[in-house]
Amino acid sequence: MSLIKLVNISKIYGEERTTIKALDDVSLEIEQGKIITIMGPSGSGKSTLLNILGAMDKPTNGEVLVNDKDIGKVAESKLSSYRKNIIGFVFQSFYLLPNLDVINNVLIPLIPYGIKDPDRERAQELLNLVGLGERSKSKVRKLSGGESQRVAIARALINNPKVILADEPTGNLDSVTGKAIIDLLIKLAEQGTTVIIVTHDPRIAQVISEHPLGQNIWIKDGKLSNEPTYDMYCW
Ligand SMILES: Nc1ncnc2c1ncn2[C@@H]1O[C@H](COP(=O)(O)OP(=O)(O)OP(=O)(O)O)[C@@H](O)[C@H]1O
Ligand SMILES: [Mg+2]
Fold first, then answer.
1. Of 55, 117, 159, 168, which has the maximum CB count within 10 A?
2. Order of strands across the sheet that contains 61-66
3. For 176-234, what is each residue's pLDDT tens digit?
């Protein structure tokens, strides 16, 4: 059984003459424990697809099935529990709080539930994991783009999500740090987490394609393909 299944999903933005079809009749089955890259040109619908997979946005048409249940038909309260318990989201723009220190940014998803000492310990462990163990008390506004990205990744992991949706998680990182982040995401997949990575980096797609749990998907003009739909090296 697939963990998440998209059935004939379309997403149309805007009204009447100014509409944009960001997703065009997309069907996709995501199995538990896979690590998947989604590649495609700017504006092809990658972030829109992740937002729909993470129930951050609703499709215009089609169904999103999670464990065979149509999440378009469940109440908002259940959807927020899906977001909290199943999904860890690494946003393209990190959405960190600049005046809060690093560790409290990692703990943001737990604020509504009350933060306890074991949560702080786990946040610290995650910061160690992403190489920021020494920076937990720094204000986020003092971090570089790459360091901020790593805080965002630690935050996505705080709830032990079953699915990690990462929108360009290495977009702001140098190649060594980027590789470390991909290695970390691969490790999580090997432990059973489903990982979906939007990336423009063909090296990442290559590494994932060679992994037994790996799968590459391409998107162009809102349509999916299992074959490259554009030349990633072409200017
Ligand atoms: N909230 C919105 N309102 C209107 N149009 C939108 C909205 N969000 C996205 N779009 C449009 O939908 C299309 C797909 O956008 P999306 O953000 O999914 O692209 P993307 O593949 O993530 O691009 P990038 O690589 O630049 O991040 C684009 O044409 C975009 O302008
Ligand atoms: Mg995007």
1. 55
2. 20-30, 4-13, 61-66, 69-70
3. 888 888 988 998 999 999 999 999 888 999 999 999 999 999 999 999 988 787 665 65
Distance in Å, CA 116 to ligand 2 centroid: 34
**Residue in the structure block whose two tokens are 């999670």:** 66
What burial letters (b/e) apply to 206-219, b meaning 16+ CB within 10 Å? ebbeeeebbbbbbb
> What tokens does 26 get?
């997309």
- Give the ranges where 133-174 is alpha helix by DSSP (H): 145-157
Strands 20-30 and 4-13: antiparallel
**Residue of the CA atom closest to atom 16 of ligand 1:** 45
Q: For ligand 1, what atom is nearest to the CA of residue 40?
A: 21
Task: For 169-181, write each residue's pLDDT tens digit.
Answer: 888 788 888 888 8
Which residues on adjacent β-strands are paired with residue 23?
A: 11
H or E segment and range at residue 214: strand 214-220
57 by Cβ neighbours in 10 Å (0-12 / 13-18 / 19+) ranks as middle
Our mutation pick for probing the ligand 1 site, out of 9, 11, 12, 13, counting the most ligand atoms within 8 A of Cβ, is: 13
Q: pTM above the 0.85 mark?
A: yes
CATH number of 33-61+76-225: 3.40.50.300
